[in-house]
Design a protein that fits this description.
By secondary structure, this protein is an alpha/beta fold. Helix content is 37%, strand content 14%. The chain is built from 12 helices and 13 strands. The strands form 3 sheets. A 7-stranded mixed β-sheet has the order 1-9-8-5-4-2-3, sandwiched between helices. It has a 3-stranded antiparallel β-sheet with strand order 7-6-11, with no helix packed on it. The protein binds pyridoxal-5'-phosphate.
């Protein structure tokens, strides 16, 4: 196996980021200090919500939101199967029931009419995921939620900076969650952020991330059992420094997407994602192409393998959640024809801020050659 020459993702950490983290290390406050407070208020200002609460991952943020909106054991929560598994796992970890809803073939986000059809008397909430940084159909999904009295959590872990009709995603539901793993648009190493306009939710998640402590300020006053989901001062300093560059980062990523589009849009076996979307602005998390209907899942897997053999890392984003061993026998779902078809034909190409045009050209040309080889085998 050849060494990876072009990785799938790469964090973009500059000298200012390093200086910001180092400066924290020279202080005596490494947790629950000024960096946390500043990161939260700067993040809330960027998204346009009243509150932001930092946590140690996107997954823990989603879990705390489910608690805070009052999801109980046995409650049903609508979620796409065509997404990252954490979105469904947190529902099960709260002893509630993920109900898988199919996605729209164009946007790859939860289909509003399919969501409506999946509602039962036990449905309490909807987890709206903005997959790959493209805003979901928030107007229609929020209308369904309102009509049927459902709470809404937006999983915006892949979508920092995406807009829907002029408003940031993450600010529409009862709460929204962002994530900062190193493959994300901005990183804190590990980390996440909950945003909300609901003071009761903000207070509850702030307490739950910190062992259920009361806000009395006494370290040994606990109102309820909670977690240690805190984000350290070093992580927060890195997040602040990265957030300063968010617009530049989003532009760089949009440029990389435009280069891929230039090389791949006219290829009959490759379906490229839309560059411009009518409902607002996408925040490019990954660049995922779909192979044409002529390709079976095994052939897609061979394409990914052959790319790897040529030193180019690609991903199978996303294998549907309901087809994972962790969900074998899970019957709470609709028919998922779009999810199953798309899930077997997608290839995520290398995608990160500093990818150059010549690397994009090399990846694209290699992909086309590999596709031809796999079809000829
Ligand atoms: C849609 C979605 N939800 C949740 C998560 C979980 O975030 P984390 O890895 O920070 O726990 C991710 C991370 O990739 C994600 O893509």
């Amino acid at each position: 196996m050849q060494k990876v020459r072009i990785p799938l993702s790469a964090p973009d950490v500059d000298e200012n980021d390093i200086a910001a983290v180092t400066a924290v290390l020279r202080t005596s406050q490494l947790s629950l200090g000024p960096q946390l407070a500043a990161f939260e208020s700067e993040f809330a200002a960027n998204i346009g919500t009243q509150h932001a609460v930092a946590v140690n991952s996107g997954t823990s943020g989603l879990q705390l939101c489910l608690r805070a909106i009052g999801i109980q054991p046995g409650d049903e929560v609508l979620v796409p199967s065509y997404t990252f598994i954490a979105a469904a796992n947190v529902i099960r970890l709260e002893h509630a029931l993920p109900v898988f809803v199919d996605v729209d073939a164009g946007s790859l986000n939860m289909d509003p009419e399919r969501a409506r059809a999946a509602i039962t008397p036990k449905t309490r909430a909807m987890m709206i995921v903005h997959t790959f940084g493209r805003p979901a159909a928030l107007d229609q999904l929020m209308a369904v939620a309102e009509e049927r009295g459902l709470r809404v959590i937006e999983d915006a872990c892949e979508a920092i900076g995406a807009d829907f009709r002029g408003r940031r995603v993450g600010s529409f539901g009862d709460a929204g969650v962002f994530a900062f793993y190193p493959n994300k648009q901005i990183t804190t190493g590990e980390g996440g952020m909950i945003v909300t306009n609901d003071l009761a939710i903000a207070r509850r998640v702030r307490s739950l991330r910190n062992q259920g402590r009361t806000d009395s300020g006494d370290w040994l006053d606990h109102a309820e059992p909670g977690f240690n989901y805190r984000l350290s001062e070093m992580n927060c300093a890195l997040g602040r420094s990265q957030l300063c560059r968010i617009e530049e980062i989003l532009e760089q990523r949009a440029q990389v997407a435009a280069w891929y589009d230039e090389y791949l849009r006219d290829e009959p076996h490759v379906i490229v994602p839309e560059l411009r979307i009518p409902e607002g602005r996408a925040s490019w998390f990954v660049y995922v192409v779909r192979l044409s209907d002529a390709f079976r899942r095994e052939e897609r897997d061979r394409v990914v393998e052959r790319m790897m053999e040529r030193g180019i890392a690609c991903g199978r984003y996303f294998p549907p959640i309901h087809q994972q061993p962790a969900y074998s026998g899970w019957t709470l779902r609709q028919a998922l024809p779009v999810t199953e078809s798309v899930g077997g034909r997608c290839v995520a190409l290398p995608f990160f801020n500093r990818l150059t045009k010549s690397q994009v050209q090399e990846v694209s040309e290699t992909l086309l050659a590999v596709i031809r080889d796999v079809k000829d085998e």
